Amino acid sequence: MITKKIIPHLSFWQIWNMNVGFFGIQYSFGLQQTAVNPIYTFLGAHAEQLPILNLAGPITGLLIQPLIGAISDKTWSPKWGRRKPFFLLGAIFCSIALFLFPFSSAIWMAVGLLWILDAANNTAMEPYRAFIADKLPQEQQTFGFQMQSLFVGAGITLANLSLFIFQKYLGGNASGGGIPVWVYYSFFLGSFCSISSVVWSVYKTPEIPPSDEELEELRKSKEESHFFTPFIEIFSAIRDMPKLLWQLALVYMFQWYALFCYWQFITPMLKWSLYGISENDEQKAGKIIALAKSGVPVAEKDMSWAKNVLHMVEVAVGQTGLMNGSYNIITMISALLLVPFAKKFTSKNTYIFCLCITGLGIMTLPFIKNEYLILLPMVALGIGWASMMGLPYSMVSPSIPPKKRGVYMGVINMMIVIPMLIQTVSFGFIYKTFLGENPSYVIVLTGVLFLCASVFVLRMKPDNRSDSYEVLVD
Prior knowledge:
Helix content is 75%, strand content 0%. It contains 18 helices and no strands. The chain has helices spanning 12-19, 21-34, 36-42, 50-53, 56-73, 84-100, 107-135, 138-170, 181-204, 212-224, 229-239, 243-273, 279-293, 300-345, 347-364, 377-396, 405-433, 439-457. α5 runs parallel beside α7, α6 (84-100) runs antiparallel to α9 (181-204) and α7 packs antiparallel against α17 (405-433). The longest helix has 46 residues, at 300-345.
């Protein structure tokens, strides 16, 4: 006889502690959003190369998250648990990669470290999604996933604001070329946050032990497993995937393609729309600085112009950090506020509304010429980001078989990274051929893609019981 496992309700602070580790993971993600592409340009990369240089994210997400999910479903350690060993291991490697990243002396080195960083992030992130479904009863899962959204906002906010603050108050080295010194401080802070926050959650949150029946099943599956078992389970999960998840995949095709476009091209857009710096100007200025460093005489007027251009490029990076930090502050504020809206209007309708305002807000960015007014659309993006990080998971969680939470959370991540992969291999051509190498057109297109995503959410039919919630406060 198989007994039904009773999952106890957790208090507000218990849910808080179990999600603290997501803060460090998302700090790292925030640096990837804002700082990695500028580092590529500091090292000499061209704008049309940025999509392919970001190939690490989609590839590692496509391979690692579903594999880690399938393996963690079949894992249990009396000391460490089921999911915690994976996000602890991921955090350790993430911390090391973040520490080393600003020391990159060439594009190939930065790309290699990005692959390590992305692999570590994906190892940590996938079990964290399954961790929520493992630990919380269905009526608390919307709250649990939105709490993750809060820490998504907090981690990325600190990452982006650190870039802005360090650039503003610690200065840069535009005249010297290469990666500015202030970038180092943001990555060092991220290295500390990555490991310390995950250790906090590991220490504070015990996992629910399997029942005797589940332990016996795990023992048998371990005896029967072989090298290809996780791959077989992934393909089996995709074959038997609930219809709701296929509908979510279509939404994600537009949503995540759009997000990758935004993260890659917001800084190039700001360079042009706010500061009048084209990519040709930036490349020309870099060559002048390189000539001067090699001892070739350079006219004082040209040298002054080149230094000013590179300084404005750094200012644009700092402005990107301020904007991304601003929308993640809104994410922090709005994440838990969306829970009662989801309860009243359903997660589906709340998600549709958030995607719509996100698309409309992003479309306005190229037309705003003031560095403070341009922060206003970040309110819409922040609310949208809060919904994207929580509501889809609470919508589909009731449809996922409990014994396959890990592998299905990995499959959901495949829905995220496949659009990113398509973007990385296709958008360089689109940018150069159809958009006239104009980053402002990219941002407008991004808004349109978000509106398309909202239309496809209409086709989804989730179980609205996932919109209920109950939270106890100590």
